[in-house]
Input
Amino acid sequence: MTDPARPFAPEIVTLFGGAGFVGNHVLGALLRRNYRVRVAVRRPHLAGNVRSFGFPGQVHPVQANLRFPDSVRRAVEGASVVINLVGILRERGAQTFEAVHAEGARTVAAAAAEVGARLVHMSALGADLASESAYARTKAQGEVAAREARPDVVIVRPSVVFGGNDGFFNRFAYLARMLPVVPVVGAQTRFQPVFAGDVARAVAKAVDGTVAPGVYELGGPEILTLRQVVEYVLRVTERRRAIVDLPFGLAGIKAGFLEFADMLTLGLLPDNLIFTRDQVALLRHDNVVSERAIAEGRTLEGLGITPTALEAIVPSYLVRYRRRGQFETRRMAPESAAGGSVAAETSGRVETDAAAPGERPGGGRVLNPP
Output
């Protein structure tokens, strides 16, 4: 992965959250640029696999917990750039949204400022100080804290991120395999899924110092409603399932029951079955790149990165959810196998071809939106 013809870069990059799904992609992107990376994680003994990403001595896991400032300060000593990717989708024990997204971001930003390191911070599309969702609200608080400590911070806001171990497409594929029907909350809510590798390239560019400070919204080339996402998953996994649209009121009751059940079982319920009331609140709002970000060039395209289409990545890891996995003899429709767009496979309302004059360049578009 590293270029052996070049020596390691003199800079040290401290990467918080480097052992996670997006973190692995970011780590790979940094190593391809020959950076030396200090991967800060809560349990280094469980993150030994990250060492194999680079040459001996290039990757070094260290212990750090965002709830303990001293450990964070030790992790950033001598670093030229600090990256904070840490985030949670639901609260567990001391790992609350407030502790991780808001206070944790403040701690990392303050430590970076103390050692004079540049800061790259990952937030999320939909971050809003006035949001009814604690996730979105604390993500926005984390952005404020990062800017207060490092006004020159680069903040990236991805939409839902997809890739081999994602919790989005894999979740619906799992539900389709386990249940006779697939319940969908916010069926008409729009998403702009972005490939984890593209997010990693954007972060790596920021580490290079070629990205101006500011907030960048990252989305893929397609905009899909949540129902279209589920239809696509069913098509790729070749499963026939009824899709049931749940109204938000009923979804809130269901989420409360699942949260209670998870508590009674001491967290033993599978993650793919857990659904929270905070997630219900998130699903009330679209998760797409804003027109303003597109106009100002604060997108993947503005960074010189061509977004990766779903069809290029998703089928390669959802194949395991087919009835016979990768040994399934049936094949997708010819147009799909040839690389047809999601638009051609869903309701025909989403297109991903080159934008014509007056359309959203590279931002995806929805025809006849609901």
Q: What stands out?
A: Residues 166 and 360 are 27 Å apart (CA to CA). The first strand starts at residue 12 and ends at 16. The domain at 12-152 is CATH 3.40.50.720 (Rossmann fold). The radius of gyration is 21 Å.
